[in-house]
Amino acid sequence: MASIQDGHDDREIALDRVGVVNVVYPATVPERGGGVRSTEATFALFGELAEDARGTHLSRFVRVLQSDERILEPEHLERLLSSLRDALGSASASAEVEFTYFVPKVSPVSGEKSLLACEASYEATLGAGSTGGAGAAGFDVVLTVDVPVMTVCPCSLELTSGPAHTQRGHVAVSVRFNGQVWIEELVELAEDCASAPMFPILRGEDERAVLEAAYAKPVFIEDLVRCVAERLDSDVRVTWYRVEAENLESVHEHDVYACVERER
Amino acid sequence: MASIQDGHDDREIALDRVGVVNVVYPATVPERGGGVRSTEATFALFGELAEDARGTHLSRFVRVLQSDERILEPEHLERLLSSLRDALGSASASAEVEFTYFVPKVSPVSGEKSLLACEASYEATLGAGSTGGAGAAGFDVVLTVDVPVMTVCPCSLELTSGPAHTQRGHVAVSVRFNGQVWIEELVELAEDCASAPMFPILRGEDERAVLEAAYAKPVFIEDLVRCVAERLDSDVRVTWYRVEAENLESVHEHDVYACVERER
Amino acid sequence: MASIQDGHDDREIALDRVGVVNVVYPATVPERGGGVRSTEATFALFGELAEDARGTHLSRFVRVLQSDERILEPEHLERLLSSLRDALGSASASAEVEFTYFVPKVSPVSGEKSLLACEASYEATLGAGSTGGAGAAGFDVVLTVDVPVMTVCPCSLELTSGPAHTQRGHVAVSVRFNGQVWIEELVELAEDCASAPMFPILRGEDERAVLEAAYAKPVFIEDLVRCVAERLDSDVRVTWYRVEAENLESVHEHDVYACVERER
Amino acid sequence: MASIQDGHDDREIALDRVGVVNVVYPATVPERGGGVRSTEATFALFGELAEDARGTHLSRFVRVLQSDERILEPEHLERLLSSLRDALGSASASAEVEFTYFVPKVSPVSGEKSLLACEASYEATLGAGSTGGAGAAGFDVVLTVDVPVMTVCPCSLELTSGPAHTQRGHVAVSVRFNGQVWIEELVELAEDCASAPMFPILRGEDERAVLEAAYAKPVFIEDLVRCVAERLDSDVRVTWYRVEAENLESVHEHDVYACVERER
């Protein structure tokens, strides 16, 4: 039976994206240490729709996902998009995948081990010109890692000669890159630019060490974002970046925000 | 035409609550200063369903809301529930209403005026035995105000003899009461028990004053909750309370929590 | 006292946006009928930061908001941004404002009146070249209205010759425009392109009429988006648009999505 | 060094719960089929605080979690709580754990395999009198599974003799029980009481079969809740239940809700 979706549309309006969103599925993510971790990811999958086509076969999106191995890394996502593009008969295909990544932490003095949860995502597009082979032209991917950090306010330190306000912040580092970039590298980069990294477990002696180090390195949200940007500027693998930071101010109910985006 | 909802159900299972949720409607809220403020509120409205009744006329819930004045105060909510109970032919009716309340703030040194947004809610039930008159038996109402505050950690102050971690916290104060309790009173109570209140605008001289006062009054989350509880214990109007606090720890990605609930 | 924010930064990295987010403040919104409605809005306010400037005076953002009348319409937002730009000494300023807008509805048969809550937002930027006067070059504003609608699936109607699946959908219509565009116009546009509009109150006779009309007008999500786009194409006031729709499929746990964006 | 938390508090206010919330950690969950699946869970962990104790050692919560195997099943959660209670020196300990559970689905005609994501949680408490051994007195656990389903409105079917409204719904089934209850059992129970279950992948022939079956079994939200309740009433393992359902009405912007709770 011919499907109604296969009919003709004469409005001459091509659609940029048609697909499914909020699809939660199991996946695996490679870790720098060498293994892979099982996770669950939230997928959005899209094709484009030619101006003369009535509709998309929406069941094909989840079928492609179901038959895929769902390994969260650029090379594999390119293969997933190639399958999706073929299944849809679409000129291009794209995906957004959000997942949680666990980074091993060791507290600075007592050596307590723990895991820090960071939200991460890939946004990938396989364009019209690409053959879908590894490294093919027309494949674009952005990796984003949202890193929780601590900041000490330089202004309050100067104002009071002591009592400063500190707060939880988040730095979302997004990059386009050549070669391999590990999620852990972006986490470490953001942490290096903050007043202090976060540790899920801190004994008393750890907390003292973290606070003394943090107070020795107060950063405005502007400093935090510029520090990350400067390091990405000097990383030859990175061809584009966007750095967004948000501080959950401890003296205010609202948050403060800074952002910089650059193409090489 | 007899509605299918009016049919008989023979499973002998009465339902505790049937109704509508996530209904967003304009409302007004009285302010301590004397006026009323227009706001928008999210309503959940419920009746109970007798074991022999097939269904509820769900359109009646929003009709009652539409024809009501929607004044967010206990006495008026009782009238709303009385109307709802009558419209449903239900033995009882209940409502949950969430809204934003703005509290005027003046910064401590420069005198900058601003408005602090606090989330507030009423949970009200009009029981079977009530006539719906003011102060009638069978009417129960809980007022909750969620107050953003600042806390300075006493432990870190002692550990380091200086550099402490500070963070944004929230205290949700819920009360059952006789007579009148203003939202502003619960806000002030929570602020008095924290290291410092929050001001949406702080100039440099304000920030210094806030931080010096906050560091002179470090509080654990346990201290914060107990302080609020102790004051509510001595308030003759309050017949029941629950105090919940959450600290957005600046040295951790997770939050810390404390809760106490007491009936007089 | 010279503030530490006024210091020099030698990293030569200008920041695209620095500011405050999640600031909840009272506001008013003009209605097509002629009046204004009090509301509360969530503001994000940004300046840019020159490459040689260390930091931004973040307290100035909320001070500008506090001293402003906060009328949610393009002309007024331009004045707000002009004040913000001056207060910051920034080359440009921008704002994002989210609020709830109530649209009066009358049910189709019984004539029951009710209010439909739609989420709306303005994203506005006042650029470097603008004087901030009304209609000045360098002022850009996007109005978005998110309209809840009902859709009937054409495919399922054809498959079964009767039993179709229907669902709640949302259409987010974003426009840049010359002159005046009322929020109500975008709501009506989205509703006209759906299978049926939404009414908070439906009596039995209304529900029958809505369903019969909806089944006579089944739409794929692609149809919905194209219909809105076609109408915006023919509206001479609209210089750019983006139409995004999301259907909360009743046969699936995930949602389906379509999007088209066009510049005239 | 004696910690400040170990100090004395003389306010004579014991706290019901003190602990950590929003702790995201890897975990495993046993599946009915025999294996275990890796997942990530959001943990809240609490102790109580005696009236004479100043504070809780909050770092101990995540240390207990880190050293635990984190297997999401009642028996193991009891061991986790026993460890936590010992580490805190608290009279009792409790935990809330939220996670995603994947249920294998096979579409009814074409046999397409897919995975349906259901949100699940355990709320567990180990009381003062318990030794922490398996099945010990003083251990209480509630399992909740939130099951997405489809509902067809009986009223609209009757009103129109054809065109009905259908929608996505959710049924949250919570149980206390003796012995073993699999998450899959609660999913099947909720699906059996709805108009139709959900399948992430439906081909045309599947969709037709699902819709025809659903229209042959229209259910009000009251019917859905009562059906689940009636089956739980007849399950000898279940000692308490709460059934909550929410329908995302396709003709309204708001949701409808029903709830029943019973102790055997």
In short:
Four copies of one chain form a homotetramer. The first copy, chain A, is built from six helices and eight strands; from the N terminus they run ββααβββαβαααββ.
Please give a structural write-up.
Four copies of one chain form a homotetramer. Chain A has 264 residues and is α+β, with helices and mostly antiparallel strands. Chain A has one domain: Roll (Urate Oxidase). In chain A, 25% of the residues lie in helices and 39% in strands. Chain A has six helices and eight strands, in the order ββααβββαβαααββ. The first copy, chain A, has an eight-stranded antiparallel β-sheet with strand order 1-2-3-4-5-6-7-8. In chain A, a hairpin with a 7-residue loop joins β7 and β8. In chain A, α4 packs across α6. Chain A starts with 14 loop residues before the first strand and ends with a strand. In chain A, 52% of the residues are buried. About 2% of the residues of chain A have low confidence.
Secondary structure elements and their pairing?
The structure is a homotetramer of 264-residue chains.
Chain A: E1 15-30, E2 36-49, H1 59-67, H2 74-88, E3 93-106, E4 113-126, E5 139-152, H3 154-160, E6 166-177, H4 183-193, H5 204-215, H6 221-233, E7 238-247, E8 255-263
Antiparallel strand pairs in A: 1-2, 2-3, 3-4, 4-5, 5-6, 6-7, 7-8
Helix pairs in contact in A: 1-2, 4-6
